[in-house]
Amino acid sequence: MHAPDISVLPPMQLLAPRTARELAFNVLEAHHAGNKHIGEVFDQAVDRTTLSPSDRRLAYELICGIVRRQSTLQALLMSLVHRQMETLERPLQTIIKIGLYQIFLCQGIPQHAAVHETVELAKRANLRWGGFVNGVLRSAIQLMTENILTAPSSKALPIGHHQYRELTTDLFPSPTLTPGSYIAAAFSFPHDLVERWVGQYGVEATIRMAFWFNQVTETALRVNLLKTDRETFRQKLFAADFVAEAGDLPETIRLLSTVRISTLPGFPEGEFSVQDLSAQHAARRLNPQPGEVVLDLCAAPGSKTCHMAELMQNQGEIIAADTHGGRIRQVYENAERLGLSIIRTITIGPRGENLPSMEFDKVLADVPCSNTGVLGKRPEARWKYSPAHLDELREMQATILRTAAGKVRIGGRILYSTCSIEPLENEEIVQQFLAATSEAGGPQFRLVEEQKFMPGSPADGAYQALIERVS
Length: 471
Ligand SMILES: C[S@@+](CC[C@H](N)C(=O)[O-])C[C@H]1O[C@@H](n2cnc3c(N)ncnc32)[C@H](O)[C@@H]1O
What we know:
CATH superfamily of the largest domain: Vaccinia Virus protein VP39
Order of helices and strands: HHHHHHHEEEHHHEHEEEHEHEHEEHEHEE
Low-confidence stretches: 1-9
Largest sheet: 7 strands, mixed
Number of helices: 16
Helix content: 40-55%
Bound molecules: S-adenosylmethionine
Shape: globular
Strand order of the largest sheet: 10-9-8-11-12-14-13
Mean pLDDT: 93
CATH topology of the largest domain: Rossmann fold
Distance between the termini: 72 Å
């Protein structure tokens, strides 16, 4: 008889999770079953618990870490459980991974607590699982040594801050013989993606990026200068026990505490937004002025739209367009919270159908992309990468840039931006656009400047090209 296909079994859920591990289990199981973002699933599940803020934080760290480090945890699991993976129920695999993540990759959780808490979770899920999970996790501890390494090897498990934990066994492919396979398995990235990075940036830079993407990063905030000033807001955070520093741009703050954003002081009053530093450069680079008429072609959820409105002193007009009618509502909600009244939202077709017939001073084209610059912030994003998807995205990006070109006035500017570090989605799209328009007899364009932000230097990866219509 064949083993049942466990991938199609309904998710298992614990009623009323009582611990951080139980909450993590519920969210991971629900995430496996559906298509929703981890953050959304977590928000729904957490609202139904009475867990303390520190338990919620631990649950969130476990969830994000386990989704991110899937390949690493799978390699550990396979070396510990000498059974066909298909015969191991998926909820049981999830529980073991919760234990393995705590033992190998969480700082500050003693091994005995990691084992005890995970065995309790296993027993709550299924009384028969406690002994098995206990055995697997105790064997896992035997895989660890006390040694911290500073260079990769097939025994080296990357743990963060450019350090590796030495294991007692060769768990990973050799980084010397097959660097791409080592990085993919040990750091947990799709193999295709790692091979691209190794080809473009070399092994060392790829490893630096992989470390950066795998560590929990600080959060950048954008202060709403129409409501407060940066120093006053920083003092407010400080008074509420949060550590924050001034960032590069006049409105940027680096928040050095881990926190659920909506609980920060000033959030309901619209004194700030969450936005990565590299993304904050987009509106700054386009430089919209008070009184101008601006088109944001891919606006939802509206971070950059609202930043532009703030830079425009809430004077002029912004048409915030998106093809996703549901998400466009978020632009409206963000604008309302931030006290911005110059934004008008519209739903458009994929080729700009339904856009008003006028021309604009500035056009922002913040196109959908592979997200390869923000893989640290979005734990599941790396697993959505595929070369085939890249082709689809490129077609969409070129179309959106052409739509932008058709809406900008002579002397006006377009900002083409992505949160990708793939040249195919960035420089190549822009160069192809410039070549095509210079050959055609219509409007002419020039590249004013472009910038690629590499992940970790110092913030998310991104690309921005400022293009001017010259005739
Ligand atoms: C990277 S997100 C935009 C993020 C947004 N600019 C911000 O800063 O919050 C890309 C958006 O483009 C939208 N989109 C997808 N295809 C589109 C198209 N053909 N035209 C316009 N928008 C599109 C998606 O619905 C998505 O909301």
